[in-house]
Amino acid sequence: MNDQEQVKARIPSVMDDPGAISVAKVYAKAFLGSISEAEKDSTLEEFAEFLNAVLVQYPEFGKMLTTRSLNKEESLKLIDRAIAPHASELLTNFLRVLGRHERLDLLQQIYKQINKLRDAEAGKKAVVVKSATELSEGILNSIQQRLNESLGFIPVLQASIDQSVLGGLVIQVDDTVYDGSLRTRLKQLRGRLDNRSIHEIQSGRDRFSYPEGN
Question: CA angle, 20 as apex, 15 and 24 as ends, to 5°?
């Protein structure tokens, strides 16, 4: 496994950790609260460009910065030496705060939470749409329109491919999952058939237990 793969392998575990997500939300709110409305777009664009640099363009540097391979003092020196001369004072100071609290591994999750907060401010919310194969733009537009009509917010679709979804779709909003996959419908049908069989067996037993005339 090369270094870039190692960086990518680490990120999903942090991204999926409920504890890390909660901490990232706190930092995301603090970061947004420190920016004036007029500066938000440019500051978040800088944040996105920085993430792209440390995670994609220079993965060795990203690994050094985000995987705790350095101690706290070394991380702060790296920020001052390599990042401060090229980044805004606001972003640099924020990275220093993360470095002092050893939270630089949450950078990507923090950015994700920032975008969620921004969407919430605009009345938007992420909606995950899972399917076994890639959905066409026309189908996604149709899903978007139907969700617009039924939900109390503007859905931001996040389409993903999940081979375990056998036909149909699985749609998730926050912790609520709407499972319309063929696999689930078959499972539900199987459950109903099993319940019907049990009922028929029990009815047969009752008839034999209480014969006519007794």
Answer: 90
Q: What is the pTM of this model?
A: 0.63
The single-letter code of the amino acid at 164 is: S
How do residues 72-108 score in pLDDT, each as one tens digit?
Answer: 999 999 999 999 999 999 999 999 999 999 999 999 9
Give residue-wise pLDDT tens across range 158-208: 888 888 777 778 888 887 888 766 565 556 555 555 555 555 545 555 555
Cα–Cα separations (whole angstroms), residue 32 to 27, 89, 139, 194: 9, 15, 34, 54
Instruction: Transcribe the chain into DSSP letters.
Output: --HHHHHHHHHHHHHH-HHHHHHHHHHHHHHHHTS-GGGHHHHHHHHHHHHHIIIII-HHHHHHHHSS-S-HHHHHHHIIIIITTTS-HHHHHHHHHHHHTT-GGGHHHHHHHHHHHHHHHTTEEEEEEEESSPPPHHHHHHHHHHHHHHSSSEEEEEEEE-TT--SS-EEEETTEEEE--HHHHHHHHHHHHHHHHHHHHHHHHHHHHS-TT-
